[in-house]
What does this fold into?
Amino acid sequence: MDTTDEEITFDENGYCNHCNKYFELAPKTLRHGQEGSKELTNLIESIKGKGKSKDYDCIIGLSGGVDSTYVAYRVKQLGLRPLAVHFDSGWNSELAVKNIENIVKKLDIDLYTHVCDWDEMRDLQLSYFKAGVINADVPMDHAFLVVLNRIARKKGLKYFITGHNFETEAILPSSWVFGANDSRNLKAIQKRFGTKELKNYPVSGLIEELYTDYIYKLQRIRILNYEPYNKSKVMKFIEKELGWKYYGGKHYESVFTRFYQGYYLVERFGKDKRRAHLSTLICSGQMNRGSALEELKNPAYPNPQLLADDKEYIPKKLSISAKEFDSILSEPTRSHYDFPNNQRIKDNLRKIKKTFL
It folds into this structure.
């Protein structure tokens, strides 16, 4: 990490706040060893018991990426009966589609795919580009979370086994992201810059979110924190056992996310998410700093031709000219906090939960 994170601080030893936070939280978060194995066994038995009379005992998201693929493998290995949910945002690469088809077939997992209303998704994504806010991935991330939560409630499932994990994803500056579940912010951006009413796009308001978390009590289980999770070893494993194919970058299974992380963030905001991803791998002992710095010398895009293809493909799919798209991306950027949002309410709720629960 470097000062592209404007809020970064360094101690007298040269360690930044992100590294120090990692080492502070690791012993509390990672449940490795005998104690963690016992906790995981008890958790799995509880999930099985509560799902006995149902078609499934848990729900998982399946993007076709490394983490979600390995989660699918692990839950089956542990004897769970998952329902996999995939959100088709209209941006899946052909390789992602093949990976997902292959995974559910080999693991014999039922898959529910929600296909978005493309006209509404396209208009909303354009709104985010026009707004010039940093998290242009919100339209896809918000919808996926809403769809998954609603299916879980509909099926009576209390456990969402997520692929988010500490050893590869712990570090990410707060100023580089914005909560995808903030529907107030999403609606405000669409109202100002959009041309369509979101009739079919799945939006979850604060009330629905609070119901899911505090009344329905959907539990989000980060199963990968219960055992050592080495990214490179897992990739080799799923390639061999499941026929999985690599996309060339983290979250690059989506053409949109590939463009967002590899070009939009880098060129419009000067933020390279690889710094955060590689820093986490250094802290978890999966990479040394010299190798990470060498990797950062390479462009964020897998190759120049792919970037040229995507820069032509993306505006065409969004139904605007390349010239108009370039003009939008050259406009001044804004903060998510320039628009109405629920962050203060969410922060207060987190403080209350931490104090009393």
